[in-house]
Amino acid sequence: MKQKTSKKSASGKPSANAKALLPILLFLVIYLGNGIFFEYVNHEEGQMGFYVVSVVLAFSIALIFAFLQNGKLSFDEKISICADGIGDDNIVIMLFIFIMAGAFSGIAKEAGGAQSTANMLLSVLPGQFAVPGLFVIACLISMAMGTSVGTISVLVPIAFAAANSGGLSVPMSVGTVVGGAMFGDNLSFISDTTIAATKTQGVEMKDKFRTNFRIAMPAAVITLIVLFVYALSHGRADIGTFDFNVWQALPYFIVLAMSIIGINVFLVLIIGIVLFVLVGIATGSLTYATALSSMGNGMAGMFETMIVTILVSSIAALMRENGGFEAILSFIKEKADSKRGGMLGIAFLTGFMDIATANNTVAIVIAAPIAKEITQEYGVDPRKTASLLDTCSCIAQGIIPYGAQLLIAASLSGVASFKLMPYLYYPYILLVFVLISVFTDNRKQG
């Protein structure tokens, strides 16, 4: 194989080259451009415009373009660079966890765990406090399930019915569920955003959780106070009665407890899968055949995320080799000359990528390698970086009207996604606390 001949600076790093970032720009044009066209220019009833063009297709085209850059490197050398990027220990671990998390999600849903957990919590909720109660329930279920979309799918129909029966604001009730779902997604140990944020930065999930908790919990408490004030000024809602099975809900709480105390995520997921299999078969919600198929379907649901991770890792490796990361670092250095500026750069980069891709996991995977460079350059604590990646992606994902979360909530409630935006209290308040945490962070890198 020929010696790599890409231009390097005196320090041994590639020289800054903004043209190396063109693959990401091409991706944004293909994905975001078509999304805007199909959502707002040529929209068809029932069509989610931002999901017409597969994110895998858009990244594949961007990767082809990246291969066409830098003629000083041979095709084989570029393949080697991509292989090094994909073969990073943290990327491999992340891919394995995605597989396990998919199996867990599939078996938990088929066993009735999500529905029983929601119904059990709703059955003890006082009607006077339906709205703040829905927020708390959404937080808990999303933390246990590790998916905001799944939580929204389960709870929004209930929130819609409760709002109608109790004379409450439907947008307020649905927006509250979306906010709670994003809280849990951000903090859950088995969320793909948490997995991506921690593994790309090489930090423990429990350490990222503690850092994240200091930001997310105050935002959640203030959101809850706002919702309690709303509840006290409105009438009692008749939530209704719901059937549930305590045994089907129990594995979620066990998984949640094990995650919080810091047990290895692989062990947590394996125990969760085994518990749901046993409980599902014992309660009759599962058979041997449906248990196997549900785990397979859950894994299949993670395939797109895994493929995107592989493609983005390849593109990132080529961009780094060609000087793209150095170009971004040079730009940030021009705008900021401190650790605080580096953290703001990570937050802005992650939020922008989520707005562009409408997928918080993809946004993290794109921003993560650049964020790691910023972390090393400015001495940012990697735990803080992981927290910023996860939190800022969830903030953006929780408020963009064309993201899966708001589109699904809008579809289930019959309320336009734009009309839900004023009631997304939690993401807005969380943004304030992210900024506070950046401007008050004095911790040294650990």
Give the tally of structural domains. Answer: 1
| Radius of gyration from the alpha-carbon trace, in angstroms | 22 Å
Task: State the helicity in percent bands.
Answer: over 70%
Termini separation comes to 39 Å
The class by helix and strand makeup works out as mainly alpha
Q: Segments where pLDDT lies below 50 for 5+ residues?
A: 1-6
Q: Per DSSP, what share of the residues sits in E-state strands of 2 or more residues? A: under 5%
Question: What is the gist of this entry?
Answer:
This protein has 446 residues and is mainly alpha-helical. The chain has one domain (18-439). 75% of the residues lie in helices and 0% in strands.
Protein model, in words:
The protein is globular, with a radius of gyration of 22 Å. The chain has one domain. The longest helix is centred in the middle third of the chain and has 28 residues. It is built from 21 helices and no strands. Helices cover 75% and strands 0% of the residues. With 446 residues, it is mostly helical. The N terminus is likely disordered. It starts with 21 loop residues before the first helix and ends in a 7-residue tail after the last helix.
Task: List the keywords.
21 helices; 446 residues; disordered N terminus; 75% helix; mainly alpha
List the SSEs and their pairings.
Elements: H1 22-41, H2 55-68, H3 75-86, H4 89-110, H5 113-123, H6 130-145, H7 148-166, H8 170-187, H9 192-201, H10 205-232, H11 246-260, H12 265-283, H13 288-300, H14 303-321, H15 324-335, H16 339-357, H17 360-378, H18 382-399, H19 404-413, H20 417-420, H21 425-439
Helix pairs in contact: 1-2, 2-14, 3-14, 4-9, 4-12, 4-13, 4-14, 5-6, 5-11, 6-7, 6-8, 6-10, 6-11, 7-8, 7-19, 8-10, 8-18, 8-19, 9-17, 9-18, 10-18, 10-21, 11-12, 14-17, 16-17, 16-18, 17-18, 18-21
